[in-house]
Specification:
Helices cover about 20% and strands about 45% of the residues. By secondary structure, the chain is an alpha+beta fold. The longest helix is centred in the middle third of the chain and has 22 residues. The mean pLDDT is about 90.
Length: about 140
Amino acid sequence: METTALLEKETVKNLLPQKFPFVMVDVMYSYTETSLISGLTIQNDNIFTENNIFLEAGLIEHMAQSVALHTGYQFFLKNETAPTGYIGSIKEIEIKKLPEINDSIQSEVTILQEFAGITLVNIVTKLNNEEIANGQMKTVLAK
């Protein structure tokens, strides 16, 4: 995956509806209309860590917030406020390995379908170019 940040931590957190300590994305590496690569360096104060391990719930939340970042950036580019979104469904999440504190993970979001505020995405999360999680999510924008 790419390593040059397109957006850094402060800008990224302004595009997400979540606020500290619940922010699970701290960098955006790339963006297109149909994809995004995001990242997170796991800190020791992360609420989803236990015994130096980033838990499954944290990985899933990171994946979901990566989708939210794609939506937030779309609206930012149009000078509009992004609506709040919700996870409509999670399908076939596979977690192969859990990262540790100070690890930097990257997630690639690929938009499969988008219609009427409902978005179906495929997400692959990697640690050091090794796939550690993948799955599909459907998100819904609040009206």
